[in-house]
Design a protein that fits this description.
82 residues, mainly alpha, Arc Repressor Mutant, subunit A, 4 helices
């Protein structure tokens, strides 16, 4: 399903980027360009992040859920633009 109409980004693109290591809404904005034009997709992008087990605010909820499933905790880091 297309999430960001302005940039033609689907939920599959977002999930793929998360699997490749993107862990925040800001990183998805930088890499995929989501929510940079009209901003209407922000809620959907954040929902895909949450469904994927990544909490954009770094809250412990996602880390607790991951530890219950035997996954390693989520790492947050700063990323600089090229």
């Amino acid at each position: 399903m297309i999430v960001c109409v302005c940039k033609s980004v689907s939920d599959r693109h977002i999930r793929g980027a998360i699997q490749e290591g993107l862990e925040s809404f800001e990183e998805l904005q930088f890499e995929l360009g989501v929510s940079l034009c009209c901003g209407k997709c922000e809620g959907h992008v954040r929902a895909v992040l949450e469904e994927s087990g990544v909490c954009a605010s770094g809250c412990p909820h996602a880390q607790v859920a991951a530890s219950k499933e035997g996954l390693s905790p989520i790492r947050f880091f700063e990323r600089e633009a090229a």
